[in-house]
Write a structure and sequence with these properties.
Elements lengths: L1 H28 L1 E7 L6 H12 L6 E7 L8 H18 L3 E5 L1 H11 L7 E7 L12 E6 L3 H11 L5 E7 L2 H5 L1 H10 L3 E7 L2 H11 L5 E4 L10 H11 L4 E3 L10 E2 L7 H14 L14
Parallel strand pairs: 1-2, 1-3, 3-4, 4-5, 6-7, 6-8, 8-9, 9-10
Helix pairs in contact: 2-10, 3-4
């Protein structure tokens, strides 16, 4: 019996050792990905993209380290540059196999100045309209553009109101908002619309611009509100109800409570695209992936 017990114990010890070695090998074989989101948890598009990415990178094969730059609530260049510098140190310490970033600020302040022509692949998503403003290396960087259905929304509205000519874009005052103004002007020209922009810092400024905007334009495009300080959801609904004189449109699902019409994007889909592109990069290290446009919905 003693011999039997001894053999059994030895067998269990060998089995356990094999099991732990197997687990260790699996841990070692995991691909490490650092993900940097330009904004913050709680911002709907950020949450959707993050969820879409994480859900499509199984924990048994990938270790994902997520960081949030929080640049909507802290839009000053000084804050963003300091935050990018801190994240750069974290990324260097982590030594990831691949970097995924979402939205413009992570590309502008992190990828463009620090990740050119290096061995590590970089995948971006959420960049608005065009990446031509960034000097990005095509040897290690690829991404998907976010194209909002603004033109389609306006053409739909014009089919009901052919005389519509003047548009007000009411938006937060951020790097992205300022960068895409000229791109939007070109788009508005193509659909026969004359547009003006009001970029506001806080809720008081938004209310003043909204009230004034209902006196002259034929339509108002409510782009986003995440960086507008002191935003009050209930007060906004009440203020809109009191002062609305023209149609309000949007292309963001979280702005629909304040609008009368919207053709909205699905931010979540960019997460799975980034995840699948990362997997493809690991499977085919020499793969050349071209820039992809976002899906119009």
């Amino acid at each position: 019996m003693r011999s039997g017990k001894f053999v059994s114990t030895r067998f269990i010890s060998v089995a356990l050792l094999t099991f732990f070695q197997s687990c260790h090998e699996k841990e070692v074989s995991k691909r490490k990905i650092v993900y940097v989101n330009s904004y913050h948890r709680g911002h709907p598009p950020s949450d959707q993209i993050t969820a879409g990415l994480i859900e499509n990178l199984p924990a048994d094969s990938f270790e994902v380290i997520a960081h949030f730059m929080d640049t909507k609530r802290n839009p000053s260049p000084e804050y963003i540059e300091n935050r990018a510098a801190a994240l750069l140190d974290s990324i260097k310490d982590a030594k990831p196999d691949l970097l995924v970033v979402s939205d413009d600020n992570a590309v502008k302040y992190l990828v463009e100045p620090h990740f050119q022509d290096i061995d590590m692949p970089v995948v971006f998503c959420g960049v608005n309209w065009s990446a031509e403003q960034y000097d990005l290396s095509r040897s290690n960087t690829t991404g998907i553009l976010e194209l909002l259905p603004v033109a389609e929304s306006l053409l739909t509205m014009k089919s009901h109101e052919p005389a519509m000519r003047k548009l007000l874009v009411l938006n937060e005052n951020t790097t992205t908002s300022r960068n895409i103004k000229q791109l939007l002007y070109t788009l508005f020209d193509r659909v026969g619309i004359s547009a003006t922009h009001e970029l506001v810092d806080d809720f008081t400024g938004w209310k003043a611009a909204f009230k004034e905007g209902n006196r002259s334009p034929d339509i108002i495009y409510l782009q986003t509100n995440a960086a507008i300080k002191n935003w009050d959801h209930n007060e906004a609904l009440k203020f809109i109800d009191q002062h609305i004189q023209v149609p309000l449109i949007t292309c963001e699902d979280f702005m629909m409570p304040y609008s009368v019409f919207g053709m909205t994007q699905v931010s979540w889909e960019q997460g799975p695209w980034a995840a699948e592109t990362a997997k493809k990069t690991f499977r085919e290290p020499n793969l050349q992936i071209s820039l992809s446009p976002g899906t119009r919905l």
